[in-house]
Amino acid sequence: MSSPREQSSRRVLEAACATADLDCSGATAIRLAENDLWRLPNTVVARIARPGQHQAAAREVAVTRWLATHHVPAVRPLPIDQPVHAEGRAITFWEELPPHRHGTPTEMAPLLQRLHTLPIPGIDLGQLDPFVRIEQRLAAATSVEADDRDWLLHHLADLQTAWTELPDGLSRCVIHADAWTGNIAVTATTAYLMDFERTSLGPPEWDLTSTAITTDTFGTLTRHAYQQFCEAYGHDVTTWEGYPTLRAIRELRLVTFALQTAEDAPAAAGQARYRIDCVRGRNGPRPWHWTPVG
Q1: Each residue of 13-66: pLDDT tens digit?
Q2: Which of 15, 8, 9 is nearest to 86 (CA)?
Q3: Are 83 and 61 in contact (CB under 8 A)?
Q4: pLDDT over 90 (residue 206)
Q5: How many angstroms separate the CA atoms of 282 and 30, rounded?
Q6: SS in 3 state form for 150-171?
Q7: Of 41, 189, 226, 247, which is the most exposed, with the fewest CB atoms less than 10 Å away?
Q8: Residue 176: which H helix or E strand, with range?
């Protein structure tokens, strides 16, 4: 028997498919998370965005259509009028990729390098906001101690100032903004970029920092593997004076994501507390070997 969450998501899916004149008979859930993914007949994948993400869904479709004109390997939206709207949600429909696996940093690097060298498109991408939802997550967290919340809010304010004072770096460009190996799909023949929900204009160093912290903060990527990533991209972000600021912002985002996750999955509360202790200097130097949540 399906869960209430799945039943609700299926109702949205059925309404959207009726509007788009698509068959959803026998649809199966791929993942029900912040965004719900469904596999439909005829190698179609439906993506149901969380409430309030209509603009982001429309931008994602526009970005992937723009990437197609530049022959960048990326997921492709169906050639229909979309996103479709149902029950306050934005739904988009995509061509399903062949069997695939997550990419490696070295497989991701050439895709990022290619994205970062494209001309600025005639799409309103907006500027990167690296602090989006951080303050809201802190306000909503019930598992954080008052002293820790106050410290994190002050830390956020310091980083917001530091963000406006970043030293010169690489030329600003179109960035993926959520560039990690889970957003790279590798088939038998091709590596593809996925998930353009946060794509915007900003410093390419933001995309590169995502991989750098897997060595620096998480300790899950070896130094040798990180150097291979840098060689494949053509730049090492950790040599830039602004890197510590971007690393600290990324770490704060990951702290607040763990706090958010702990609201629905209490088992994540311990990891959230550990991450807070790390950024507050209570657990020694990096790498801190944070474990995934959610």
Answers
A1: 999 999 999 999 999 999 998 899 999 999 999 999 989 899 999 999 999 999
A2: 15
A3: yes
A4: yes
A5: 39
A6: HHHHHHHHHHHHHHHCCCCCCC
A7: 189
A8: none
Residue 261, class by beta-carbon neighbours within 10 Å (0-12 exposed, 13-18 middle, 19+ buried)? buried
DSSP β-bridge partners for residue 192? 185
Dihedral of the alpha carbons of 88, 64, 225, 166, in degrees to the nearest 10: -80
Strand partners, 84: 91
Q: Which candidate, 197, 240, 250, 235, places its Cα nearest to that of 116?
A: 235
Pick the CATH number of 4-96 from 3.40.50.620, 3.30.200.20, 3.20.20.80, 3.10.450.50: 3.30.200.20
- Neighbouring CB atoms inside 10 A of 70's CB total 13
Q: Give tens-digit pLDDT for 230-243.
A: 999 999 999 999 99
8 Å CB contact between 138 and 153: yes
CATH class of 105-279: alpha beta
**CB neighbours of residue 48 within 10 Å:** 26
Supply the pLDDT for residue 167: 98
pLDDT tens figures, 89-134: 999 999 999 999 999 999 999 999 999 999 999 999 999 999 999 9
CA dihedral 176, 181, 182, 187 (to 10 degrees): 100
Distance, in Å, from the CA atom of 151 to the CA atom of 128, rounded to the nearest integer, reads 25
- Show the beta-strand stretches assigned E in 24-88: 28-32, 36-40, 44-48, 84-86
Q: Where are the domains of the chain?
A: 4-96, 105-279
